[in-house]
Amino acid sequence: MYFVFQSQMRNWGGGLLQAVVQSSPQFEPHWWLAQPFTLAPSSLTFTLNAKAPKPDNYFTGTLSIELYSIKLINLLIKAGVKNELLPAKIIDRKSKENLPLEYKAFHLLEIYPGWDRNQSIVDEKLRVTKLVLTEECLTNKRPFFRIEKLFLILIHEDLKKTLDNAGITGCVYIPVEDYRYRNFYEY
């Protein structure tokens, strides 16, 4: 069984618990094609509220940059997930002081077709009403990958259990059969 994997959006202290990208590099098409950068940025800068909780998977408000804790990254690497890590500079939103937190920008280097185009219902803007995976996808049991063209990350139930057992925070897991497109801010 697979789940759609997303960052959890939650309120904290009268606002959204979010790591806001300050320095967004010019992303190459490689980002979405699951290929390493040819010219990787030296680092990405994020601001956050220093007093807020620190989830392992930060909501960033983008579909292109994931900010994961070293704990989460190590579990993904142990599961064999191909990735590219970029340094993340994290600063306090108010004081602008550097925060000594162990996070990195995570670039997933795994993309597979995986969805049945005949049985899935996807509109011209790639909004999913019904997502059905191919038999090949279901039998391959890839642990964590971006599904081709749909801008979604899928996680296998075995890796989900590993993350749950490790106490990983900040993640939302939506069973594939229950997933429906929503605006980013509706979750």
Number of domains: 1
Shape: globular
Tally the beta strands: 15
Total helices: the number is 4
Largest sheet entry? 6 strands, mixed
Mean pLDDT: 88
Provide the β-strand percentage band: 25-35%
| Helix content, binned percent | 10-25%
Please give the radius of gyration in angstroms: 16 Å
Q: What is the end-to-end distance?
A: 22 Å
Give the helix/strand class. Answer: alpha+beta
Low-confidence stretches: 183-187
Order of the strands making up the biggest sheet: 4-5-8-9-7-6
SSE pattern: EEEEHEEEHEEEEEHEEHE
Structure description:
This protein has a six-stranded mixed beta sheet with strand order 4-5-8-9-7-6. The chain has a five-stranded mixed beta sheet with strand order 10-13-14-1-15. The protein has one domain (2-186). It contains four helices and 15 strands. Helix content is 15%, strand content 32%. It is of the alpha+beta class.
Furnish the topology, listing elements before pairings.
Elements: E1 2-7, E2 11-12, E3 15-16, E4 20-21, H1 30-33, E5 44-48, E6 57-58, E7 66-69, H2 70-78, E8 83-92, E9 103-108, E10 111-112, E11 121-122, E12 128-130, H3 135-140, E13 144-147, E14 152-156, H4 157-165, E15 171-175
Parallel strand pairs: 5-8, 10-13
Antiparallel strand pairs: 1-14, 1-15, 2-3, 4-5, 6-7, 7-9, 8-9, 11-12, 13-14
